[in-house]
Amino acid sequence: VQLQASGGGLVQPGGSLRLSCAASGSILGASVMTWYRQAPGKELELVAIMTTDGSANYRDSVKGRFTMSRDNAKNTIFLQMSSLKPEDSAVYYCNSVRYNTWGQGTLVTVSS
Question: What is the rounded end-to-end Cα distance, in angstroms, of the chain?
Fold first, then answer.
């Protein structure tokens, strides 16, 4: 199983981005999927997690601003990020817990 993340970029504070993570196979119904991020000089932190039934949970700092979703037909998960803040700047990684597979990371920079 391989994961391909995309969608990062430079956005102004208050803006939005949608990250995508495409899986090479039909794994979304069989694996818990996660989004992590790592800012420079900081530890990797869990941002969002989606169970096999599609329910999602979020770290407190992104609740109400980020939404994780999936498209089973396209084997893709998404992270819709809104009201972005400079402290959201990081490299974002998607992960399949069951297959212990990581995407390559996509950089999000929130700056004016």
Answer: 37
CA separation for the pair 99, 14 (Å, rounded): 35
75: alpha, beta or left? (left if phi > 0; alpha if psi -120 to 50)? left
Nearest to 50 by CA among 80, 25, 83, 88: 80
pLDDT at residue 66 tops 90? yes
| Strand, helix or coil for residue 11 | strand
Amino acid code (one letter) for 75 = N
Instruction: Please classify residue 5 by burial: count the beta carbons closer than 10 Å to its beta carbon, then call 0-12 exposed, 13-18 middle and 19+ buried.
Output: buried
Q: Give the model confidence (pLDDT) of 3-13 as tens digits.
A: 999 999 999 99
